[in-house]
Predict the 3D structure of the following.
Amino acid sequence: MTTLRAFDERSHRGIAWHRIAAMLLRHKYLLTSSWPRLLELIYWPMLTLISWGFMQTYVNSNASFFARAGATFVGAIILWDILMRGQLGYSISFLEEMWSRNLGNLMMSPLKPIEFVISLMLMSLIRLAIGVVPMTLMAIAFFDFNPLSLGFAMVAFFCNLIFTSWAVGLLVSGLVLRNGMGAESLAWTLIFILLPLVCVYYPVAVLPHYLQWVAWMLPPTYVFEGMRALMITKVFRVDLMLEALAINAVVFGAAVVAFLALLRSARVHGKLIASGE
Amino acid sequence: MHDMSALTAQSAIRVEHLVKVYRATRAVDDISFDIAAGSVTALLGGNGAGKTTTIGMIMGLTEPTSGRISVLGHPMPQERDEVLWRMNFESPYVDMPMRLTVRQNLTVFGKLYDVKNLGAQIERLADELALKEFLDRPSGQLSAGQKTRVSLAKALINDPDLLLLDEPTASLDPDAADWIRKHLETYRRSRNATILLASHNMLEVERLCDRVIILKRGRIADDDTPSGILARYNRATLEEVFLDVARGRTQEAQGEAPGEAR
């Protein structure tokens, strides 16, 4: 092609951080221009914490066993919020592109699917931080619970939960790509199917036997069991965290494969050029 | 009709036996064409003729059922990463985030395309496309004409070698549409860029394009220069030719006086 200009092709091969940074900048512009979006990130985590925090205070003052078990409530709330808000942060960042009919522009740009996914994962961390940091400060100030005091255990809990949340976010965004905005409600609802199964507020032993099998196939179950073990018996169950990490690797890998398959299907069915209902 | 055997190394786009089937519908039905670098070509056709699907496949947004596409020397969609940064597009089917200002949107897309001296490039485009007065206004607060100019600025942010435009002046008043066309002409001349556009606006096609490919029900109904097509159909305007094709009046019938063919 003699008539075409020569470009520096180096930056267009492999994963380019400048493109991921561009996507983060896009969301920074959005969040800083919209106070309701910013407020929403903080509002629900704080409201949830206040409601359950006072419940814990009540339980703590009424029974010795519940005093110990009750201490896990606030921990459970914070960890569930990491799981839920991590997924919502991923999915909403994706949905913003659908709502603004911007997806075609992005898919036609040099932004690669893997870069798009990485930018969504980073956005979920940023959105999560905006919500969880004030929530954590409130837990320390009003309910005498400092998740940071859990040290390395908290890091292990966080990593396992965020991997699961990204896996669910990947699946949801793939389904929305393939099926249009009719599948949007999955972004708000799908994660809640995990709520009873991963035993956020009660031990796995409470579940019927057949559901225990299902529960142990889900990585967050190990995190919530691990959190209760740590807070009630003061034992950090490394084995549980490693098992969760192994299952997460499979779940996350499966979600990436599903996302790429759904993206391919969206291309086959011409859904990317006119994404909508 | 253009001879496919005359394909040259100067092709910006080469489409061979392209087919796209959606369930039972053949949206694009075995089309082949070759678009020379530095040319402006129009895809004409009524609603459902296959224009947007064809452009979608050239951009790599839609996967062909069969056939081959080569863009700037690279097979699509297999080597899309090699060419996407050298092309750009504008379409009424996509928008830019409304809450972001024009400058913010152009900044994000400039960074995605790794544009050097991005600030200067935005200022230059703002000058050329008369965006300066609303550069710091949210994109959602712009009029249709202003939005089209911003979309064009986004499409030109990386100085593309290949520009794909889907109805670039749709919903614009004649003055704004004329203005956009002038800018596209200037851009093509100054950069030797290739432009492929889908349009319903026959005046636009006559004024801008070196070549017209008329699609009907997913097939190429005609392919020639605007003057060649007008001569063959014995018509004064492409709009009349468009109506002939859309209503099934064949070229052969056009050997008669225009009034008799109606």
Residues 1-7 of chain A have pLDDT under 50 and may be disordered. Residues 17-24+31-268 of chain A form one domain. Chain A touches chain B at residues 1-5, 7, 9, 11-13, 16, 18-19, 21-23, 25-26, 29-30, 33-34, 96, 100-112, 264, 267-270, 272-274 (CB under 8 Å).
